[in-house]
């Protein structure tokens, strides 16, 4: 499932392509025909993301709300030629101008909503480390009173928004936190370190399109970002994600896996032992 950095980059790219334009909105597949008719021809005001949710504001208070879910994709292409761009696959939503065509396929959700609903959706979501001035206290208050495992809480979008299965496994390893430790037993300093690590790591995900967590790669990419020249990574390294049975990069013991909150959690039993 795409994590928050993917949605953030998508909102940024949609904004760059469509802000101030009046795209023709259609639903080649038909499932979003009514919504497309509402939006078509209106000025695209701006796009933003909160966690895994994408919002695009059109003039006169019409908002497009998209959640990609597990398999959804939203591609934005520059037009190479005038005329109809062929539809490939099941396109729920198409945004077309003379310069760009964006196709949304397989989303979990695609709807036109009012500003009130936008506010209500955002109010239900925990802080997103990529948003301007997120409030980590909101997440901390929920974690500190919960008996659920921290690995489960990090996946709960009402606690923290945008974190998915890869970031949760990796950040818990990076901070050497036992993933099964209940939220209420997590120390404040540990939570602060997790939050700051996510604030630090997610922009690298936005810059590269990949989840970068292993120290060497983090240093390399951070230097590239600072220099304003990022090569798109071809290979992503991880500490624990999808490395079950392989030796831990730090201590050599075998990486373990178990389903937690519906997805496979990966961790090192030795490095992430309770202290
Ligand atoms: Zn280890």
From TrEMBL:
Coiled coil: none annotated. It catalyses: 2'-deoxyribonucleotide-(2'-deoxyribose 5'-phosphate)-2'-deoxyribonucleotide-DNA = a 3'-end 2'-deoxyribonucleotide-(2,3-dehydro-2,3-deoxyribose 5'-phosphate)-DNA + a 5'-end 5'-phospho-2'-deoxyribonucleoside-DNA + H(+). Its cofactor is Zn(2+). This is DNA-(apurinic or apyrimidinic site) lyase. Keywords: DNA damage, DNA repair, DNA-binding, Glycosidase, Hydrolase, Lyase, Metal-binding, Multifunctional enzyme, Zinc, Zinc-finger. The keyword Glycosyltransferase does not apply. Residues 239-273 form the FPG-type domain. It comes from the Bacteria. Pfam families: Fapy_DNA_glyco (PF01149), H2TH (PF06831), zf-FPG_IleRS (PF06827).
